C-alpha cells in the first residue's frame, strides 16, 4: 500500500463524519423576542391588586317581617241633626203682632190693605208696584210733630211717567198733609225703573191710630193709577 495516500484517506473520512453530524443535528430553536413592558397597564394592575377585597355576608335575608305598628280605629262619628230652614216672606200689608211695651201701642193684626200699592192690571200702560215705604205701619209718633213719609215705586207699566203730568196727592183717610196737599215727581220714570216720592205728614194731636191714602194722579186724563198708605200711632 502506498504510504503517501493514507493521510488523504484519513482526512476524507474525517470530513464525511463531520458532514454526517451536521445532517443529523436538530435545527436550533427560535428564541422569542423579549416584550417591552407597558408601564401604564402595569400600574393599573398593581393598583387593583392592592385594593381591599370585598367581603360578602353569607347570612340569609329573612323573607318576611312582622309589623309592630298597632292601628287604633277612629271613634264613631255622630251625624249632625238635619236642620230645616223655611224662608218666610212677609208682603207689604201683612204685619205680625207685637208684644205691648211701655212705649209702643199694640199693632192690630190686619189683612192686606187694598190701597197698599193698588194699581191697574198687568197689561196697563200705567202701572206701579210698591217696593218699600217709610216709616213702617203703625210707627209711634209724638202728638203735634211732623215727619217726611217716603214710598219707593216701580214703573211696572209700558209707558214713561212724565214728571210734568203726574202729581203725588192725598186721596182719602185722615188728612195729615198739613199745608202741602200735592207734590210733583222730581224726574221722568221709564218702564222698569224705580223712583222714591216724598210727602210731609203732620199727625193729629189726639192719641190714636191714623191712616191716610196717597197716590199718583195722572193730570192729563184725570185718572188715579197708583195708591199707597201712611199709618201711624200717635201717643
Summarize the structure.
This protein is 13% helix and 27% strand.
Summing up helix and strand content along with how strands pair, one would put the structural category as alpha+beta
Biggest sheet details: 6 strands, mixed
Please give the oligomerization state of what you see. single chain
- Summarize model confidence as the mean pLDDT: 74
N-to-C span: 198 Å
CATH level 3 topology of the domain at 118-234: Immunoglobulin-like
Topology:
Elements: H1 6-24, H2 39-50, E1 118-119, E2 128-134, E3 139-141, E4 147-155, E5 166-173, E6 182-184, E7 194-201, E8 208-218, E9 223-234
Parallel strand pairs: 3-9
Antiparallel strand pairs: 1-9, 2-4, 4-7, 5-6, 5-8, 8-9
Structural write-up:
The protein is α+β, with helices and mostly antiparallel strands. It has a domain at 118-234: Sandwich (Immunoglobulin-like), CATH 2.60.40.10. 13% of the residues lie in helices and 27% in strands. The chain contains two helices and nine strands; from the N terminus they run H-H-E-E-E-E-E-E-E-E-E. Strands 1, 3, 5, 6, 8 and 9 form a six-stranded mixed sheet that branches. A hairpin with a 4-residue loop joins strand 8 (208-218) and strand 9. It starts with 5 loop residues before the first helix and ends with a strand.
